[in-house]
């Protein structure tokens, strides 16, 4: 099973807002390698991704990724986020602006918060820089990169840790249409080479068409349609 996500989470209402707050309720599992969760703004997509990543604790439920239980309220299992071994790619890639490409990618290998040295190199780093075609720009800073190079740097930083799965939060939302299309193709090529499960959240129908081997539509915190 690639993903098993069964959870219930009641969030408190925002300060000064009447009502009981947002309730998220999911019950799904799939053995498809790519799962896309889609739905309108405020549907609960980001909260779901946060729960899988260990950044939001469900009130109850069970979350397994690639067959590995990460959360199970019945047995009080709640693996800390850093131990879940998930490659989490944020919408804006969240690269460190003051670190060059090599350091950004190497950051995934670091323990603690010390920055990797500027000229750091080892076998793993060389492998990922080459695989993601970043050798030529390894000494450049994020603002000197193209959108595609930025995305590949973020992917390399996530993948160098050998995650059990990749979590992508609206990976193409902030890009112009031409670059968006190129990066979709790059991600498809990467997935063909790196055989790990992918969980993507998006509100873009094209992402759904391209990556939605299994798909779940959320609305108001509930599943309204699913193809698993
Ligand atoms: N920490 C929180 N505490 C309380 N309510 C929250 C919290 N985070 C999100 N919410 C509420 O939960 C709902 C779902 O939020 P979520 O960010 O998961 O939506 P989304 O589907 O990812 O939307 P978008 O596409 O706009 O990012 C929203 O109504 C939001 O107001």
UniProtKB/TrEMBL annotation:
Pfam families: ABC_tran. Keywords: ATP-binding, Cell membrane, Membrane, Nucleotide-binding, Transport. PROSITE patterns: ABC_TRANSPORTER_2. It comes from the Bacteria. The keyword Flavoprotein does not apply. The keyword Membrane applies. One of its GO terms (molecular function) is ATP binding. Gene3D superfamilies: P-loop containing nucleotide triphosphate hydrolases. SMART domains: AAA (SM00382). This is ATP-binding cassette domain-containing protein. It comes from Roseateles flavus. The lineage of its organism: Bacteria, Pseudomonadati, Pseudomonadota, Betaproteobacteria, Burkholderiales.
């Amino acid at each position: 099973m690639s993903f098993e996500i069964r959870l219930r989470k009641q969030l408190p209402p925002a300060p000064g807002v009447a009502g009981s707050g947002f309730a998220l309720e999911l019950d799904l599992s799939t053995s498809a390698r790519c799962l896309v969760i889609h739905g309108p703004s405020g549907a609960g997509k980001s909260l779901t991704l946060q729960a899988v990543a260990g950044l939001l604790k469900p009130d109850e439920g069970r979350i397994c990724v690639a067959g590995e239980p990460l959360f199970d309220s019945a047995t009080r299992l709640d693996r800390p986020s850093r131990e879940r071994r998930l490659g989490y790619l944020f919408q804006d890639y969240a690269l460190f602006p003051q670190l060059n490409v090599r350091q950004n990618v190497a950051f995934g290998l670091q323990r603690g918060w010390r920055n990797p040295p500027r000229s750091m190199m080892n076998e793993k780093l060389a492998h990922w820089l080459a695989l993601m075609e970043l050798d030529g720009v390894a000494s450049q800073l994020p603002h000197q990169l193209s959108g595609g190079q930025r995305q590949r740097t973020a992917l390399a930083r996530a993948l160098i840790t050998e995650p059990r799965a990749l979590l992508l939060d609206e990976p193409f939302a902030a890009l112009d249409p031409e670059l968006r299309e190129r990066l979709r193709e790059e991600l498809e090529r990467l997935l063909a080479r790196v055989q790990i499960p992918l969980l993507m959240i998006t509100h873009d129908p094209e992402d759904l068409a391209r990556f939605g081997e299994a798909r779940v539509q959320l609305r108001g915190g509930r599943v309204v349609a699913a193809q698993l």
